Amino acid sequence: MKKVKIIECPRDAMQGIKSHFISTEKKALYINSLLKVGFDTIDFGSFVSPKAIPQMRDTAAVLSKLDLSKTQSKLLAIIANVRGANDASQFEEINYLGYPFSISENFQMRNTHKTIQESIATLDAILNIADKTNKEVVTYLSMGFGNPYGDPWNVELVGEWTEKLSTMGVKIISLSDTIGSATPEVIAYLFSNLIPAYPALEFGAHLHTTPDRWFDKVDAAYKAGCNRFDGAIKGYGGCPMAKDELTGNMPTEKLLSYFTTQKVDTNLKPMSFESAYNKALEVFL
User: Fold this and answer.
1) How far apart are CA 139 and CA 123, in angstroms?
2) What phi and psi values does residue 243 have, to the nearest 5 degrees?
3) Exposure on the CB side of residue 223, measured as CA atoms within 13 A
4) For helices 105-112 and 116-132, what crossing angle results, to 10°?
5) What is the phi/psi pair of residue 211, to 5°?
6) Selection from 37, 68, 92 nearest residue 256 by Cα
7) What is the pTM of this model?
8) CA 110 to CA 107: how far, in whole Å?
9) Which of 26, 29, 85, 270 has most Cβ atoms within 10 angstroms of its Cβ?
10) How many CA atoms lie within 13 A of 159 on its CB side?
11) What is the DSSP letter of 265?
């Protein structure tokens, strides 16, 4: 039976909530319920400036409340600079450091206040830190499917950056449909060309979508060879720069229904997923 990895992203779902602070207890309860489901990885928090993302300021405290004794899920934390990488690397429980790298100069400046060249230097330093602390770096290629800022973008440019990142030592690249603008045609073209060209790399799909377009995007990525998908229950979260307020993360329940129909093993336990789904409805009131 074919297998795919599902990465659940509660951090992505929570970080944009500015109306109230979700308590550390509530976050930990929710993530503990996710740890029982069978996700390959949980993107659980971030070590970034509390000024930039106040909702994630308690990531270390949340981590201390997680029960990792009966789970095989790995933990991923997002970082944006060397300081964040050093902070996250202190925790043995964290397996992956996630670094958002954009091939759009405008988006990189908005997201991390760095130019692309500065970001490459930062990524190089992060890879060294990860190497010394037994972590792996997941590089998110933000604006991987196009961008709204008029910056140069084409599939060849994505290929060039993939080559550069691979040469630097990156082993996992998640192509990010940051504002939900990717078409099935572009998704299919990129994955079907990049995956065979870089057999040593693991490619993932971090897709944002409106409720009516999720199927075509997942279908295009999977049939083009992608076996790693990010999702968030009910599609909570997404990019605040997306023009359409209906654009959110790829709903995990849609991924589950798609792969069940395709008879693909996701390793997710249906009853545990239902329990976590119900908990999400309490967290994201």
Assistant:
1) 9
2) -70, -30
3) 14
4) 60
5) -55, -25
6) 37
7) 0.93
8) 5
9) 85
10) 13
11) B
CA 186 vs CA 36, 120, 146, 192, 244: distances in Å: 35, 25, 9, 10, 20
Nearest one of 170, 224, 231, 234 to 206, comparing CA atoms? 231
pLDDT higher than 90, residue 180? no
Please name the residue that has the structure tokens 């009966």. Answer: 70
CA angle at residue 185 from 180 to 186, to 5 degrees? Answer: 60
Q: Which two tokens stand for residue 71?
A: 């789970």
Spatial contact of 55 and 14, defined as CB atoms under 8 Å apart: yes
Pairwise pLDDT comparison (87 vs 159), residue with the higher score: 87
Residue 171 is encoded by which pair of tokens?
């082993």
Name, in order, each residue with C-beta under 8 angstroms of 105's C-beta and a sequence gap of 6 or more. Answer: 115, 116, 151
- Pairing, β 248-249 against β 202-209: antiparallel
For 232, phi then psi, to 5°, come to: -140, 130
Rg (CA), the chain: 17
Enter the DSSP assignment of 253: H
Token pair of 185 as six digits: 């045609």
Percent of the chain past pLDDT 90, that is, above it, reads 73
Statement: residue 243 has pLDDT above 60: no
**Superfamily (CATH) of domain 5-283:** Aldolase class I (3.20.20.70)
Provide the Cα torsion 276, 282, 284, 285; round to 10°. 160
* pLDDT of 241 higher than 50: no
Residues comprising the chain, all counted: 285
Q: Do 187 and 157 meet the contact criterion of CB atoms below 8 Å apart?
A: no
- Residue 19 CB-density burial (10 A; 0-12 exposed, 13-18 middle, 19+ buried): exposed
